[in-house]
Amino acid sequence: GIQVEQSPPDLILQEGANSTLRCNFSDSVNNLQWFHQNPWGQLINLFYIPSGTKQNGRLSATTVATERYSLLYISSSQTTDSGVYFCAVRTSYDKVIFGPGTSLSVIP
Amino acid sequence: NAGVTQTPKFQVLKTGQSMTLQCAQDMNHNSMYWYRQDPGMGLRLIYYSASEGTTDKGEVPNGYNVSRLNKREFSLRLESAAPSQTSVYFCASSEEGSYGYTFGSGTRLTVV
Fold it and tell me: Does residue B98 have a pLDDT over 70?
């Protein structure tokens, strides 16, 4: 089946710093999403981005489907950005497979 | 509020006991999913249902059964719980191909 990898696995940032999270996938996908799981366990949609670039405030994402990767950019990080960031890909059979996540800690 | 509702939020079972995790969504979504989340392993798909009346296995279906009784509800059953099934279980729903994949708040299950 399709494999989804994320890097880095862990990241510690000083508040105000910028970061880039990466998601690689092994096969063609119908779409890709980024999620944030906050420290209380709640999972929240960030982006639905099968291709191209989208921005939402301090966050933006780019997916290059032909090269099978996606990037999530976090600018001017805040402590509320802490948590785990997952990318998830949807296959042709409507399965949605998650990557292992990047654990982000933003310290004041 | 519209969304995905899971019950119960917490449960402790003894090995060999059975239970059903309930999930309901009020967004008229066709697709529903059950995931388990274990430390360091992200979310793994147990079963999914692309539409009412259909279910399919995901990555880790062994030891589980599901029922999609109607468009709103998708339940997950553990017939004979094992300690390896200790995990946090998430239900989710989406409209196929759409933005917006909504998760429930999770069920923390411990099997002793």
Answer: no
